[in-house]
Specification:
The protein contains 26 helices and no strands. By secondary structure, the protein is mostly helical. The longest helix is centred in the first third of the chain and has 42 residues. It is elongated. 41% of the residues are buried.
């Protein structure tokens, strides 16, 4: 025992107990004498042997055997005080806190009776043992209250999660989980229902966190020995940290004190449910079957089994709708599937990945791609981080013109794939990113880039005249500083667009994607500042532009070389010479 070889210690104590029983029988058979024992075997000797073997069983985490030996020690000698703490440890490790307290109370009663009838010189020893057992009894009762409270909080939390009408119906035997085809008749999730799911998640997590905090100290004390305590703690933490809870309960899988217990089987299924999501549903079903064989009326196991059935059916409804291109129906089904248990992030990550694919197909819905991106990011952050999911995120980002994010995501998809499947898509995103970030000079002049090859030089010049007329700084002489700044920037862009699109070589390079914003020669336009542009059409002032537009000079215009800012005071209150009914408005 002292060397830590507890199985050998158990075997040795067993031999000693067998020898004791043999000698006791011989002593009694021979009328009070035995060849190998000088004195009669006493109850105290027997109690010591069983108590020692109980201690060895405790060290070997064999708590039922430890409890049995402690009880036999007490039965042999109710005043053998060392047996009571061992009974307490065995029962607490089994989660039998009430029984542990009752055992200590019985010991206190036995010892107190003996103390009252013994000489004064022996009372202190009894009193010391009574004090120890009193503390152990109190500790057991406090732990019993903590465990009961934690179990109650967990039950309340999971009943809140399982609150939706569709799920309640399935548990009661009248809904989709009893007949999975019935899931397709569920109505789409409304905003109020979605908000309700979020509220349920928040309230349930509050309850589970309270349960976890109340058991934390007890868990740390008994996590190596008590499957009962670990099971309740794991039930509280299953949604928030399923991996750690799976590790915590694994050590008790082969311990028959717990492995065959219906509640322990349920908790194993619950941890697996949150840890693996849909991938673990089959294992969950097997564990729940074991739980229900032992306890057919176990409500928690029945509820979890129904939940899994409903989640599978509702997700499949979404998949079927997606394959038939009924994308809104698919989205509604996926949303309902997620809301069945919003705490199951692993499962939600898979379903939200599917929902993102459906949202991407809704081209007529304004914020569909934004919602799809949120779903993709949630999926990736919660374990659905396959190459396919990163590629989906990249495509959503591209639709939203988030080019840096799109390129980063498609590269991650390519790295995770390892097969080169996305190599060409990486190149495509890079090229489209460069093209998208190039200035659309056709758009600057109010032209359609898709018709670039059909525009004549005359059409481009006319478009330039129209745009220059709108944005020439002299037009904005009486505007605010902010409006003037915008007009100056716009007018500069109009000049640059005209310089590129009226230059055959630059236009050809631009149309072929060979002229980027940072390419030498892409930034065109004359020198001389905003009010005094260089020569050529793009250097014209307002009188030149109006002359071209209306066939004659325009009286009252500012002189060439002036700017809007410089001419504001000089033109205030003067006749601008605009045609009757012609007015400028900030656009």
């Amino acid at each position: 025992f002292k060397a830590g070889n507890y199985q050998q210690a158990i075997a040795s104590y067993t031999k000693s107990i067998d020898a004791f029983n043999t000698e006791a029988s011989n002593w009694n058979a021979k009328g009070g004498s035995s060849g190998s024992m000088a004195t009669a075997p006493t109850p105290r000797n027997e109690a010591m042997l069983f108590s020692n073997r109980s201690a060895a069983h405790l060290k070997a985490n064999e708590f039922e055997s430890a409890q049995r030996d402690a009880l036999r020690a007490i039965a042999a000698d109710p005043l053998f005080a060392k047996a009571y703490p061992r009974l307490h440890t065995a029962r607490c490790s089994l989660g039998l806190f009430r029984e542990a307290a009752e055992g200590m109370d019985k010991g206190i009663e036995e010892l107190r009776q003996a103390m009252n009838s013994c000489p004064a010189s022996g009372k202190s020893e009894y009193q010391q043992s009574i004090t120890e057992l009193t503390l152990l009894s109190r500790e057991a009762r406090e732990n019993m209250v903590l465990m009961a409270k934690a179990r109650s909080l967990c039950q309340e939390a999971y009943s809140i999660i399982n609150a939706p009408a569709t799920f309640d119906a399935s548990v009661n035997g009248s809904g989709a989980a009893e007949n999975t085809e019935g899931a397709s008749s569920s109505s789409p999730s409304s905003p109020n229902q979605q908000q309700g799911a979020e509220e349920r998640q928040k309230r349930a997590m509050q309850l589970l966190t309270t349960a976890e905090v109340s058991l934390r100290e007890l868990f740390q004390q008994y996590k190596q020995t008590s499957g009962a305590i670990v099971a309740v703690y794991a039930e509280a933490r299953a949604p928030s940290d399923p991996d750690a809870m799976n590790t915590a309960i694994q050590r008790f899988y082969t311990n028959t004190s717990f492995s065959n217990d219906p509640y322990f089987c349920y908790v194993r299924a619950l941890v697996n449910f949150y840890r693996q999501g849909e991938a673990g549903f089959k294992t969950c079903q097997l564990l729940l079957r074991e739980s229900l064989i032992s306890d057919p009326d176990n409500k928690a196991s029945k509820m979890l089994r129904k939940k899994i059935q409903l989640m599978e059916a509702t997700k499949e409804e979404g998949n079927t709708a997606f394959k038939s291109k009924s994308y809104q129906v698919a989205i509604d089904a996926y949303t309902r599937a997620i809301e069945i248990d919003p705490l199951n992030k692993k499962y939600s990550s898979m379903v939200r990945g599917n929902r993102a694919a459906a949202l991407m197909e809704l081209t007529s819905v304004a914020n569909a791609n934004d919602r799809a991106l949120v779903d993709c990011e949630f999926a990736i952050e919660n374990g659905n981080d396959s190459a396919k999911m990163f590629a989906r995120k990249a495509r959503v980002c591209e639709k939203l013109e988030k080019w840096d994010d799109a390129l980063r995501a498609i590269k991650q998809a390519d790295e995770r794939s390892g097969s080169g499947e996305y190599r060409s898509e990486v190149s495509g995103v890079q090229q489209r990113s460069r093209n998208a970030q190039r200035k659309d000079w056709y758009k600057v002049l109010g032209l359609d880039k898709s018709r670039a090859s059909s525009y004549t030089d005359v059409e481009i010049k006319k478009a330039y005249k129209r745009s220059a007329l709108v944005w020439h700084p002299d037009k904005w002489a009486h505007s605010t500083e902010e409006e003037i700044s915008v007009a100056e920037l716009k007018f500069k862009e109009v000049q640059e667009a005209n310089a590129i699109l009226t230059d055959p070589r630059k236009k050809r390079m631009y149309d072929n994607g060979q002229l980027d914003n940072d390419t030498e020669g892409a930034s065109a336009g004359g020198g001389g500042g905003m009010g005094g542009m260089g020569g050529g059409m793009h250097g014209a002032d307002m009188s030149d532009i109006f002359g071209m537009m209306f066939g004659g000079g325009m009286g009252g215009m500012p002189q060439r070389g002036g700017s809007a800012r410089g001419n504001r005071a000089g033109t205030s209150g003067r006749n601008t010479g605009m045609p009757p009914g012609f007015s400028f408005s900030f656009q």
